[in-house]
């Protein structure tokens, strides 16, 4: 009788503890949010809209800088017609000014996603916080039930509870302060790429403009001999110019994809951090963090590859890509430039993704083990 009564009392205590843990998780959410709002540093001179949390407004200010003509964007030309480009400090992604005046289509595409990212973040963060609170309450309740059905002593149970509560509090702090630490990953890789490559100004429109210039020079070099004089050479040279243009268009597309992907990681991906509150769904949050490092690695490698490739491309622009006035002009320069453009394109498309995947392969923060 005494053993049965003790077992029944222990199970009742376990059920009460599970309910108390669930209520404690719900009650701790506003406390953690208030603590995060207190310790969140505010950027100097920032004027936030009423009702917008300070971290959200901070990231909104960071990621909307490209919309004003900073990251991966072309600045408006000055009165004399010369472009005035300024790289925004702290803005994620690559920055630079494209040659020529006027807005560039590719830069405008990137800026459009950058401007929309701030609106996504203000919607996603509250959803992620509510998801985290629900899953954390479920995690604590399940832990209490497992303790009630198990044979661990009350000291071990409370020790496990304290450790779990500390882990959940840390994860929620990361979620609440998300706009302050996740952008630092991209900025860190970007700064490293700028320092290593010595290039602080690269954007997709600039790459595409270089490709258009090279392809145009190739066609102009073939124009001197005339089509009927050497039809086979003109066809081969025209095809080479087209392939060069397509290669640079593919490079510009890769830059756009990487930067837009970075904006998605900085904003919409915050929803997956809300799944960190439960041991069964925490792999979503862990994979998201690894993905953020993977995108940052790709940005770093793109800086290195594009910086070197653009330097070579400017040398190709200066080459005499045709021998006008000759009856049968040599196609050797055109074919050499074509080979270089195709290799440049292959490097940009192959190396960043392959290296980033290898570096993050098998990496783990072991969050699931921490919640057990």
Give keywords:
single chain; 372 residues; mainly alpha; 10 helices; elongated
Word description of this protein:
This protein has 372 residues and is mainly α. Helices cover 70% and strands 0% of the residues. The protein has helices at residues 2-39, 54-63, 105-149, 154-176, 178-197, 204-223, 231-266, 282-318, 332-360, 367-370. Residues 34-102 have low confidence and may be disordered.
Number of strands: 0
What is the H-and-E element order?
A: HHHHHHHHHH
Number of continuous helical runs: 10
The proportion of residues in beta strands is: under 5%
Rounded radius of gyration (Å): 28 Å
Arithmetic mean pLDDT:
73
Strand-helix topology:
Blueprint: H1 2-39, H2 54-63, H3 105-149, H4 154-176, H5 178-197, H6 204-223, H7 231-266, H8 282-318, H9 332-360, H10 367-370
Helix pairs in contact: 1-3, 1-4, 2-3, 2-5, 3-4, 3-7, 5-8, 6-7, 6-8, 7-8, 7-9, 8-9
Task: Please outline what is shown here.
The chain is an all-alpha fold and 372 residues long. The chain has 10 helices and no strands.
């Amino acid at each position: 009788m005494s053993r049965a009564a003790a077992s029944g009392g222990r199970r009742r205590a376990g059920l009460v503890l599970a309910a108390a843990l669930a209520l404690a998780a719900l009650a701790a959410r506003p406390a953690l949010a208030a603590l995060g709002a207190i310790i969140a540093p505010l950027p100097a001179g920032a004027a936030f809209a009423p009702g917008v949390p300070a971290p959200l407004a901070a990231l909104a200010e960071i990621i909307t800088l490209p919309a004003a003509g900073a990251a991966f964007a072309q600045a408006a030309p000055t009165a004399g017609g010369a472009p005035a480009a300024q790289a925004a400090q702290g803005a994620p992604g690559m920055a630079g000014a494209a040659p020529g005046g006027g807005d560039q289509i590719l830069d405008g595409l990137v800026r459009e996603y950058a401007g929309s990212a701030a609106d996504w973040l203000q919607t996603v963060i509250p959803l992620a916080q509510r998801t985290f609170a629900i899953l954390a309450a479920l995690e604590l309740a399940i832990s209490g039930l497992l303790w009630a059905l198990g044979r661990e002593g009350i000291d071990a149970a409370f020790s496990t509870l304290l450790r779990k509560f500390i882990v959940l509090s840390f994860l929620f702090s990361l979620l609440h302060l998300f706009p302050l630490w996740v952008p630092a990953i991209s900025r860190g890789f970007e700064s490293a790429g700028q320092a290593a490559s010595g290039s602080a100004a690269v954007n997709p429109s600039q790459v595409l403009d270089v490709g258009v210039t090279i392809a145009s020079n190739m066609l102009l070099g073939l124009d001197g001999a005339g089509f009927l004089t050497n039809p086979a050479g003109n066809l081969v040279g025209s095809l080479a110019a087209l392939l060069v243009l397509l290669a640079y268009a593919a490079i510009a597309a890769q830059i756009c994809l990487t930067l837009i992907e970075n904006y998605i990681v900085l904003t919409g991906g915050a929803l997956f951090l809300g799944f960190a509150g439960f041991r069964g769904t925490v792999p979503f949050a862990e994979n998201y963090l690894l993905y953020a490092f993977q995108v940052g690695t790709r940005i770093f490698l793109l800086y290195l590859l594009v910086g070197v490739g653009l330097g070579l491309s400017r040398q190709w622009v200066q080459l005499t890509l045709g021998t006008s006035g000759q009856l049968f002009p040599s196609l050797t320069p055109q074919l050499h430039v074509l080979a270089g453009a195709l290799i440049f394109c292959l490097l940009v498309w192959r190396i960043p993704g392959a290296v980033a995947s290898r570096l993050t392969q098998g990496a783990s923060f072991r969050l699931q083990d921490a919640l057990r």
